[in-house]
Amino acid sequence: MSSTLIVELDMKEFCQVTEIPAAYVIEIVEHGILEPQGQKPDDWLFDAHALAVAKRALKLQRDLDLEWQGVAVALDLLDEVELLRAENRMLKQRLGRFLLE
To answer: Which distant-in-sequence residues (6+ apart) come within 8 Å of 68 by Cβ?
Structure first.
């Protein structure tokens, strides 16, 4: 039997766990980097994926001294690179099977 743990954090909990000030979280959401459930900051709920994205975004912002708009672009490009690498691996596997036949 397997069980899946679903993590949902409100704004206060999210800020505590990520160590990101609420003002930054609001900016990150405004730039489309995070997409919480809920209409306004007091109602927002964040999942485990949002935790990972927020930490990655903050690291990019701090390490590269980027504005949040630049962070959004960088994250989109990094996601695209990951997708292309996965597709490349799959195509290499297919090609390998084809060449062995």
So the answer is: 27, 28, 30, 31, 33, 57, 61
